[in-house]
Amino acid sequence: MPHTKLILSPSKPSSSVGWRSIAIGIILIPLNCYWITYIELVQYSAQPTIVSLIFTVVFNILVLMGFNRVFKRFLPRLALSQGELLVIYVMLSVASATAGHSMMEILVSTLGHAFWFATPENDWKDLFWRYIPSWLAVSDTGVLSGYYEGDSTLHTKQHLLGWLTPVMNWFAFLFTLLFVMVCITVIVRKPWTEDEKLAYPIIQLPARMTSAGFFTNRLMWIGFGLVAAFDVINGLHHVFPAIPSVYEKAYRFRFTEKPFSAMGWLRLGIYPFVLGIGFLIPLDLLFSTWFFFWVWKGQQVVGSMMGLEGTGYPYVNYQGFGAYMGIFFIAIWRGRKYLQNLLGANVQSTSTRDEPVSPRLLLLALVAGVAFLTFFCLRAGMSLWAVLVFFGLYFAFSTAVSRMRAELGSPMHDLHYTGPERVMVAAVGTRPLGPNNLSMFSFFWFFTRTFDSHPMPHQLEGFKLASTAGIRSRFMLFAILIALCVGILSQFWALISIPYRLGALHEMSRVPIIYGSEPWTQLQKWLAHPLAPDYWALGFTGIGLLFALFLMLMRMKFFWFPFHPAAYATVCGSWAVNYIWFSLGIVWVLKLLLLKYGGRNAHRKAMPFFLGLILGQFTVGSVWTILGMVFNIPTYGIWP
């Protein structure tokens, strides 16, 4: 399938992209963080940050474009250029991914949980309090009472001072973690973007909606209007049940007899925005995603036939982790010449585009970032070997997720409960790791629990937009770093101040309590009942790695080979794929027929319709969440 070209400005660095775009981004980031927190933790009506294309960010850009039309007519000097709109989009995206469902929302909920919920029954005080560094947690129950019970405010001297030390320390850690990701992104962006020319499907919508002519396309408005009408009616049904709904988002069924009952619930999810994103994905990757979903279910059936239910077989999450490691090694192998030149500081640019930083400064920044993370963890009591193995696995995984997004453009990529710490426990057991390492693993749960809102792919897509839209890459680098700094501080404020008003135990959703309990309950089990190495889990991790390498080898030798390792990794251990596989299967059939009988021209003409499906659902979905905030009522969500 041909890659769709982005509609962007010429690739020369643009002088029309100035600091006012960063200023606007700085203003919008706190508002967007507050909005995301309210949606995901208070209303629990949708989870925008678990989707690769974050709908709150798209809506912000749409609103800015509405103001832009007015400015172009009456105050043309105030109108934003396409490059400025894209800078704002990237700033909001990287900040939102950091703030969201699988990052900071979990971090804040863990900081006081081990102290507030300690009881004689769980024995947390004697079991692991002494292993928790005081400078990383909030232990004062006088400070925590307002957070959990509500009817209070963060803005008192006692509360602010109680949170200040852990917030500042975690700010330093998290910003450095994201800074290392930015360094890796700068390293891989050139070979992936300019040499391999990966497709970057996710950025198609922001690139096209900020270009001239997008909103004059009739097919786009047909797709937009169709989905918007459906979601308006379904939203009204949610508030007023007497109004009939148009369709259900997902239809569930399951087999009741063995061995097929082992597959669990099967969901026929119909999500227009998934249809739209799926249309941007290359055809072979679409088919592979759909195919490997059924391979996963087939493994469950085989396990039931062999009497292996309840044993962990087929260890699909560990297969997924291994597959991501395989993708990492594939990416390293393909870019080995560039990396050799980089390490020798002999990179010669073959492009007219400027580089964000010199190779030597880039490597120094990367080493400094890793050194700070190592120092931070050693001061917290971790062992040096555990720090190096953990972060080696984590950054390898992060690179693989970014590669997969750039190539596949999956709507979601969530590998649940199989981060580096789980693989390390499977490899050596809990005793060799010791309570200090295991306690810090519990804090790291906020970025290893699941990887759906991973910030690194958003950083990479930002540099892709910069290189194609004519935005200086150094300017985009500054914009991303500023967005990360402002986003972390803004989200700390939102995640701490809202519970003081509403109460994490009362009016707020119970999700923060669930997030907070998971890592400490796991630590309790690790310390009270130490685990031996799980060689089956480790073996299936190796199987996933080798199978991903085998798939890529087959694709290199046989151009017709239809199965892609990125799709295999995406499916394994994914909660989201249970909901989106059916929509991806539908769009695969539609796209196959369109290309077969209409060719490239028909595909190009149909593109605006599918982009309209995304934009229509994101727009109405955003409006419903805003109405829910204004009127303090639960409203319709476009995603489970």
What does this structure look like?
It is built from 25 helices and 2 strands. The two termini are 31 Å apart. 50% of the residues are buried. Strands 1-2 form a two-stranded antiparallel sheet. The longest helix is centred in the C-terminal third of the chain and has 55 residues, at 577-631. Residues 9-15 have low confidence and may be disordered. It has one domain (21-631). 68% of the residues lie in helices and 1% in strands. The chain is mostly helical. α2 packs across α25 (577-631) and α4 crosses α22.
What are the defining features of this structure?
single chain, 640 residues, mainly alpha, two-stranded antiparallel ribbon, 25 helices, 2 strands, 1% strand
Low-confidence stretches: 9-15
Q: How many strand elements?
A: 2
- Give a quick account of the main beta sheet: strands, pairing sense, barrel closure: 2 strands, antiparallel
Mean pLDDT: 93
Q: Strand-residue fraction?
A: under 5%
Q: What is the total domain count?
A: 1
Number of helices: 25
Across the major sheet, the strand order is 1-2
Rg over CA atoms: 24 Å
Query: Termini distance?
Result: 31 Å
The share of residues in helices is 55-70%
